[in-house]
Amino acid sequence: MKVAVIGAGGFLGGALTTAFARQGIPVHALGRDWRGVPVDDTEDRVTRFEGDAGDPEVTRAAMRGCTVAYFLAYQGVPLMDGADHLEEYDNNLRMLVSAISGAEYGGVERLVLLSSGGTVYGETDGPATEDVELRPISHYGAIKKLSEEMLAHYVAVAGTLSYAVARVANPFGPGQVNAKRKGLVVSAMLKALAQEPVLVHNDGTQVRDYVFVDDVVRALMALGTSSDAANEVFNVGSGAGRSVEDVLADIERVSGLALDRRHVRGRLQDVDSNVLSVEKLAKVLGDPEATGYEDGLRLTWQAVSRAAGPARDLP
């Protein structure tokens, strides 16, 4: 077996590439720019491709000879105000078309699409199951919804491959330390170390589903090969909701450092609650959280504190 990861230069794409390589599975990793990427002990099992994921020739080269392909690429900054959203739609839907073309051309059997459980549902009343109506309120969420629909329709009408969709909640983990988009957990940890204020939108009672990166990677790997995942959609999360304030308090507990909270106005695209049901995923994986939130938080703090300077003793 050989896998392709389109968008391997990102947080989740990099973690997925490393996980496959550590299992001895060859990986074709496509990223926009590999300059400055550190080399580790898995490098001999990773073939790196560089270029625009929207170029069919590039994706065809990256997917050729692969059994499973993962599409994690995204151009633009999710939930950013003032962005050129028409260009964002054009770039990202074009990249998906290129990925489908590359998969068909390369003989891929399963294409796994990374979607966003944190945005496609909009506001959730309790944990959202995969069959509830999608009501995204952000352009990012709308693009992910369109991507899901486009892939499912293509496969149903003309495709020779199968697909799986992973609606991932709010992932966090050590790899976000050097990522462009760090997320609440790592951003707050870095602010704690730097003794800088953390910006909290509204009053911090907004509830989200936070899931550790290793648990996301484990789910993605299973969705690429499980017969139960063919042409299906799965939530990938913890199944539990935590408020922003809860997460900040947990970070203070794990780090032993106090956070200075600075409250600012909320954003138009924010919702009060977004939590995912993971019952369907559990039927494929067993326990969806092998590591879990608590252990994941400690592992992330260890990585963040190491990256920032001398090691600290954990409480």
Which properties best describe this structure?
NAD-dependent epimerase/dehydratase family protein; 39% helix; 2 domains; 315 residues; two-stranded parallel sheet; Epimerase_deHydtase; Rossmann fold; 13 strands; NAD(P)-bd_dom_sf; alpha/beta; UDP-galactose 4-epimerase, domain 1
Q: What does this protein structure show overall?
A:
With about 325 residues, the chain is α/β, with parallel strands linked by helices. It has helices at about 10-20, 55-65, 85-105, 115-120, 140-155, 185-195, 215-225, 245-255, 280-285, 295-310, and strands at about 5, 25-30, 45-50, 70, 110-115, 160-170, 170, 200, 205-210, 210, 230-235, 240-245, 260-265. A 7-stranded parallel beta sheet has the order 3-2-1-4-5-6-11, sandwiched between helices. Strands 7-10 form a two-stranded parallel sheet. Strands 8-13 form a two-stranded parallel ribbon. The model has no long low-confidence stretch (mean pLDDT about 90).
